[in-house]
Structures are given as C-alpha cells and as structure tokens.
Amino acid sequence: MTNDKGHKTNDQFQRSSTLFVNENQDQKARPDLALTIAQAADDRKGENIVILRVADVSYIADYFVIVTGFSRVQVRAISQSIEDQVETTWQRRPLRTEGQADGSWLLQDYGEVIVHIMLPHEREFYNLEAFWGHAEHVEFNSRQS
C-alpha cells in the first residue's frame, strides 16, 4: 500500500475514510411505515392516533405511533391489524411484541417505529405525548373522522 505521496507503507489502517450509506436511508427518516401502521390502527377504529418523529430526540426509534383502544379485545385487534398490514405491505414482522397477555398497553417494536396501543387510563396516566412533547408531530388524517 502507498500513501498519498507515493511512499510504500505497511500500515494497514492508513486508508481514506468513506461513509457507506444504505441507498434506502434518508437524512430524515421517511414516515411511510409509521403511516401504514396508523392506517391499520384506524381500520380497527383506534382513536387519538398520534405519530411522533422522535429521531432527533432519541436513538430508540425514528417514530412512535400512539393509539387508544377502548377494550382489551380492541387493543389486541388493533395490534393484529397492524401486524397483518405491515406484513402484507412491507413483508415485515415486529422485532418484539410486549403486553399481549394483559392487553392494557401493547407495544410493537418494528425497529425504526415503535407502536404503543393503550387503554384510555394507561394513555392518560403515562402521557407519552407530553413526555415526548418536543418531538415533531407527523400529520395523519383518520378515515373515521
């Protein structure tokens, strides 16, 4: 290997640095998956659907989708609708799902999007929108309205 002056060098670490970026990555993460999730929740009559872009304020995820279900059965139905729609549209399954047994707060982790489906009491008590209040809100228009 030679350096920039043409001298031979044995230093294996002396290379120009290059940042490789996946061609699907944007400087600003796109909300497509989050919008698919929000629409699937809306299809099962999820209420008060909020999409927060948390990428600038957290390394946990790029987006949070927060949804209210009014019974444990509805919370689970919303979760299943999201799983089905994301698998159909994006050929993806959640990396992790928590709260399925209890059904009062169900969390689905899709990596760049984390979904919170909650009963009204849990949503009011934990108030994630206030905790992440400095995050950008992404517009979502419900078909139910």
TrEMBL record:
Domain of life: Bacteria
Example GO BP: negative regulation of translation
GO molecular function: ribosomal large subunit binding
GO cellular component: cytoplasm
Keywords, comma-separated and alphabetical: Cytoplasm, Repressor, Translation regulation
Keyword Plastid in annotation: no
Family under the similarity heading: Belongs to the Iojap/RsfS family.
HAMAP family in alphabetical order: Iojap_RsfS
Name of the molecule in the record: Ribosomal silencing factor RsfS
Native species: Coleofasciculus chthonoplastes PCC 7420
